[in-house]
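Sorry to interrupt, but I need a hand with the structure work. Please put the record directly below this note.
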Amino acid sequence: MSDSFSHSLRQLWTLDKFAYSFRVFLAFSGAIALSWSQDQIALAIPLFLGIIASALSETDDNWEGRVRALLVTLVCFLVASSSVELLFPWPWLFAPGLALSAFTFIMLGAVEQRYATIASATLILSVYSMINIEQHGGTTDGNFWHQPLLLVAGAAWYGLISVIWCALFSRQPVKQSMAQLYRELGEYLIIKATLFEPLRGVDVESRRVALARQNGRVVTALNQAKEMIFRRLEGQRGSRKLNRYLRLYFIAQDIHERVSASHYPYSALSEAFFHHDVLFRCQRLLDQQGRACKRLAKALLLRQPFEHGQSEQALEDLRASIVYLRAQRNPAWTPLLRSLQALGRNLATLEDQLSSAHNPDAVADQKDATLFNRSPRSFKDAWERIRLNLTPGSPTFRHALRLSTALLVGYGVLHLVHPTQGYWILLTTLFVCRPNFGATRRFLRQRIVGTVLGLVVGWALISLFPNPLIQSLIAVVAGVTFFANREKHYVIATAAITTLVLSSFNQVGDGFDLILPRLIDTLIGALISGLAVFFILPDWQGRRLHKVAATALTNSTLYLREIIHQYEAGKQDDLAYRLARRNAHNADAALSTVLANMLQEPGHYRKKDADEGFRFLVVSHTLLGYLSALGAHRGTLTPTEADADIHAAARRIADGFDSIAASLTSRQPIPELKNEQSALMVIFEQEPAAAQDDADDERRVIQTQLLHISRQLVPMSEAAGRLVARPDETSNAMNGVEKDAGNVSERT
């Protein structure tokens, strides 16, 4: 029984939201205990609001960094709440101050995500201050500092708990982020395995889109893990446990490059080997390796040994299948078998990486284990980031202007209509108005549904349990529920925070009087947010799709150039190479995100852009797969003089992609590249001028990869051409799109 209980606790500890929710529980419980011990239940409300704002401002860091962030947050909170207290009686001063502060805080988010989080929480606390003053009849009761200090005290109380927790369990978030990374890698491997399924009539393009979307999740997990490790390595480079996580991160990076690799068009492989089991062997091995990644994630969380051996037999079966096919001596299979052998070697190396993950301490340190620091290095650097975003073309600027205008309109509406508890309009606007239409529409719908659900549940609970102590406990449970669900289940989170409001305010007044005003205010705030994102500098994704696509192609080209440099100078996983690889995947993920947001927009605004965007995404992700395969084979050959022509031709490919990207960025006609592609294909189809040995086979594989990359020039130019086409051109071009789509799918 004790073992079962211990196992349950360990499972609970592995949940990424458990520690966060438990800290909130401690903070709420302390606030309730203080208010009841002082026999002043009214103290709980400002303390609760301060705790909520502080928890929303929390960012990941080591404990020293969290102390610095907490001090900055508390200063911002004190200034914001004091300003609200000072200007509240004068609406004509309050209104421009509200709009200006909202614009300023949102623009601060251009510096770094941590600044954006603190700025957003400060705006939320400002509205909480308005609600708190309104609860006291719109006056300060002769004590100007009383309410601001209570709000800041609640924030400081949660911040203290957070700092202590971080000092005690500093590596737990790193472990959880690393486990999340390997889970996402495992899912990517499993989806990639479906591409090898030897079936006819399968919608390969939809699977490629799903793979590209999952790649975005892997990239997000990689970035999150890197940032967590980087913040803890500052000043602690010699920490053995942190270095262990750093090695696991580098292993994950290498696995990601290898699993992203594409060695040959899957349709050609499926057609040639449809009646053989080799593709099934590839599929089974990838699937087994994906499940191994998920087991590794679980072992990391539960501190259990990771035993990896289930996919070793699958690897041996794949090798045997390739040996059998080579023994058939079919001349038509020769180029395909080279690619299959390269795929087998790549998967074997991936298998070795997975095997080494059970004891990362035994893995040799990288010569260059530097992580790129994306934080601003000085005040000048921070200001430069803000200055570059002070333009209508910046999504941050547009969101700042949109939100400040929406808050100003909401403030005017509440004074015009004089609804009871009118400042909930501003709070709803603040939570619902998002940087793009798709996110705003999603949060608008969820906010309304969650509010209605919360009002019904809250009404039932305060009716069934009129005892103030029980209602206080309900408020604590509701607050914890909000923070446990606010990222993944926003409807439940909204219902929980609404229940907290009703049960808390019912102890200092009549909570039933809040039900109808809260519903009306939510509807008004949601309406203002929806109109703002639709009419005030609307950020329709189609308007910048060509630029995002150009960025993806530019970063893939830089990745190609860095790979060529590695072939010339020798393999070295230095910062320059890893940064080029990461930027290419980040840009590919950003393109996938833009297209996902575009699908949420009204059909009139996305028109055919989404379809053309997904076609471009398929070609772009295919190119990234071939680049990853080329990168995975670094270090297998010693450079010779005969390779110089191949490297020069590879740079011509990069020049071609650069010309496409430049035309995409400026929305100019895409250059014709059919002749250049044909010339490059002739170069890469030539047999290597070397002896017939293993090195010769490896050169053929590399030339084959470059051949596949060069074959993407025309599909890429065609996909880019449809993105830059004007509406009248698009309507004419669309007549041939359906016919071209099959050809593009076959090429990719």
